[in-house]
Design a protein that fits this description.
about 300 residues; alpha/beta; 12 strands; globular; disordered C terminus; binds fe (ii) ion
Length: about 300
């Protein structure tokens, strides 16, 4: 709805509510902000007119949002969690990562990424608490033509065997457990040792957990590890690697699963090879290749589509 210079009604009625609120923005000089606020006001008023909430229901909504903010700490981001379970994080991610066919698909960042993870050598073991089945993760980083990307950075993080990230259990898990930054070799290859990821619950003791319960939904994310892959001259990709054998792939509470990101973890019972790899037996292996898009090709957001 355009804010025109035609004389606008001054006072709000149920019928003209959008018109009256939008008219107050006629001095707004930022076109993008104005477009965003116009859209939000139009849709919000439409929702209210459809729901016709009681005063108590509206207060409950305000209380829910207040609690969401109050649940946030330095290590817990309830707002991101809310965005995630409503499917909004994935939608924003998808809009901003329209990639050519063959490129590694992105998925949600999630609330547990930490800047400044330690630099690791290829082959290092990032499982510092020694829990879980050992896994060897390896693969190659290439461009969309299949050429290797040397020196690509892989920022990896995952939950431990008990289903918690290190930042959720300070003093229980070693700091920087199951985190590390690796760099691909001259042939674009990398490998590291870790623990096989497990499915785990997203934080369920806050307002978002109550929202899920009321909605008849579970809070269990299928087993995955996170990685951000960057290379000089390429668009970074924020993604996951999911274990095909994990339950809940079809009902991820944050909608992060994509078919191309589901990989086969191979099980091994081979003491000799385990000893060579410096890990316990039995163990698993998984190959996780990444295809990055040149920055020149671009897959940036199409704001004209968002504006529709
Ligand atoms: Fe995760």
């Amino acid at each position: 709805m355009e804010v025109s210079n035609v004389e606008q009604p001054l006072y709000m009625t149920e019928e003209n509510s959008v018109e009256v609120v939008l008219a107050r923005m006629k001095e707004c000089s930022d076109p993008r902000f104005r477009m965003i606020m116009t859209s939000i006001i139009m849709h919000l008023h439409a929702v209210i007119k459809e729901i016709e909430p009681t005063q108590d229901e509206w207060y409950a909504a305000i209380h829910f949002l207040t609690q969401t903010g109050q649940t946030c700490t330095d290590t817990r981001q309830e707002w991101i969690l809310l965005s995630d379970v409503l499917g909004v994080s994935m939608l924003v991610d998808t809009i901003n990562n329209r990639k050519p066919s063959g490129a590694t698909e992105s998925t949600v960042l999630g609330p547990f990424h930490v800047s400044g993870a330690p630099e690791r050598e290829l082959g290092d073991n990032i499982c510092l608490d020694g829990k879980g089945m050992p896994v060897v993760v390896s693969g190659r980083v290439t461009d969309t033509n299949g050429s290797p990307i040397a020196g690509a950075t892989l920022d990896v993080w995952m939950a431990n065997e008990d289903g918690f990230y290190d930042v959720q259990q300070p003093g229980i898990q070693p700091g920087m457990n199951l985190r590390g930054i690796f760099h691909s070799d001259a042939d674009g290859r990398y490998w590291f040792r870790s623990a096989r990821p497990q499915y785990y619950p997203i934080p369920g003791d806050g307002p978002v957990g109550r929202l899920l319960k009321l909605s008849g939904r579970h809070d269990l994310r299928p087993a995955h590890l996170h990685v951000i892959v960057t290379g000089l001259g390429y668009e970074p990709v924020v993604t996951h690697c999911f274990d095909r054998k994990s339950p809940y792939l079809d009902s991820d509470p944050v909608f992060g699963v994509k078919e191309s990101l589901i990989l086969d973890f191979e099980d091994h019972n081979d003491q000799e090879r385990a000893s060579q790899l410096g890990i316990g037996n039995p163990f698993a292996t998984v190959t996780m290749d990444f295809v990055l898009v040149s920055s020149q090709l671009g897959s940036s957001p199409k704001t004209e589509n968002v504006a529709r």
